[in-house]
Specification:
The chain is built from 14 helices and 17 strands. It is of the alpha/beta class. It has a single domain, classed as Rossmann fold, CATH 3.40.50. Strands 2, 3, 4, 5, 10, 14, 15, 16 and 17 form a nine-stranded mixed sheet that branches. Strands 1, 6, 7, 8 and 9 form a five-stranded antiparallel sheet that branches. The structure holds S-adenosyl-L-homocysteine (SAH). The site of S-adenosyl-L-homocysteine has 20 residues, from helix 4.
């Protein structure tokens, strides 16, 4: 039981079962007891570890890819260098260090962070003190925009549905025996899932992220109008299929209902939904993270860094390279999609 379990149980008893999305939103973003509101969950000592925390190579290569896209588009100035959900600010710090030598880039770039967590904003300010913070993408400046979102979309609440002969049953969080319990609503047709009737069977589970389309539309419109590019990196696949809701605490998978507010909750990203919302910007073919990083030259970069390392530091460096790229580790589960203005060349490492 957590402080949030009590208030969630009371809410469900008073107003009825809630959607998985409402449950996730409460657990992650509750201003007092929410997971992100109250802590820095990242890194070896935290609940989970992300690519930029595994190795500096990740942010460096992404920085150079964005700087190349900036040069390909005629070095516009000024530009917004945007990150959604920047965690500890490690990725952006690596981006800024790696792009420092690119003539004109640092002078053109103004860093904008979209971040809701006060605890993580404080961490980000330590590494990127000159950033400008936003609560949502809606207040980002209208100018050429080079954007990165790593493990941001997976933190947005999702609704879950099981297909049924008579329509879809939504997964809802109710109360049974004084505890939170998952249940299913009565079957009903759901217009937003009509396109999934062709590729699913009764019994299949699909997920829908209500906030995703609005965010991607806003980014796509800015990039198509003013120039720039976006790199979206996350676990997921072309289309959502199956239950991907996951709760992680201290690097272990736990029951999503057991400790609301104390475990990270995520779901795989539906990249087909990203692609649908991108217009008028153009989306790239979906790549795996491993292939993307190889194309950007991670192995050469790893070999160069290895020259100055030995002993445990070298072992850790080799393990980090493997962890980011190997199909059995993050290399295949994590996918990358780029957005660019119509007519612009695809981002380095990605194909049209
Ligand atoms: N990109 C970072 C952190 C990933 S964790 C990394 O790769 O290390 C998810 C991040 O998104 C955190 O910074 C979290 O506070 C932020 N976040 C989650 N939901 C958000 C929302 N609705 N709006 C803005 N930021 C959010």
């Amino acid at each position: 039981m957590t402080p949030l379990s009590d208030s969630l149980i009371r809410r469900v008893i008073q107003t009825g079962p809630i959607t998985v999305a409402d449950y996730m939103a409460e657990c992650l973003n509750h201003p007092e007891h929410g997971y992100y509101a109250t802590r820095d969950p990242l890194g070896r000592a935290g609940d989970f570890i992300t690519a930029p925390e595994i190795s500096q190579m990740f942010g460096e290569l992404i920085g150079l890819a964005l700087a190349q896209a900036w040069m390909d588009q005629g070095r516009p100035t000024p530009i917004a260098l945007v990150e959604l959900g920047p965690g500890r600010g490690t990725l952006m710090a690596d981006v800024l260090r790696a792009t420092g030598p690119v003539p004109g880039f640092a002078a053109a770039a103004q860093v904008h962070f979209v971040e809701t967590s006060p605890a993580l904003r404080a961490e980000q300010a330590k590494r990127v003190p000159d950033a400008i913070w936003h609560d949502t993408v809606n207040t980002l400046p209208q100018m050429p925009t080079f954007l990165i979102a790593n493990e941001f979309f997976d933190a947005l609440p999702i609704r879950q549905f099981t297909r049924d002969a008579a329509g879809w049953r939504e997964h809802v969080v109710g109360v049974e025996d004084d505890g939170l319990q998952l249940g299913l609503s009565s079957p009903a047709p759901i217009a937003l899932l009509d396109d999934r009737l062709v590729d699913t069977q009764p019994g299949d589970i699909v997920e829908h992220c209500p906030a995703l389309a609005g965010i991607v539309q806003s980014i796509g419109a800015t990039i198509a109008r003013h120039g720039g590019a976006a790199l979206i990196i996350d676990y997921g696949d072309w289309q959502s299929l199956g239950d991907t809701l996951q709760a992680v605490r201290a690097h272990e998978t736990v029951d999503p209902l057991a400790t609301p507010g104390d475990a990270d909750l995520t779901a795989h990203v539906d990249f087909a939904a990203v692609a649908r919302a991108a217009s008028p910007a153009v989306y790239s073919r979906l790549s795996t993270q491993g292939v993307f990083l190889e194309r950007l030259g991670i192995t050469q970069r790893a070999q160069m860094l290895a020259k100055s390392l030995s002993g445990a530091a070298l072992d850790q460096h080799i393990a980090a390279h493997r962890r980011l790229t190997h199909p059995g580790e993050m290399g295949e589960t994590f996918k990358v999609m780029g957005l660019t203005p119509p007519g612009a060349p695809p981002l380095p490492g990605l194909t049209a």
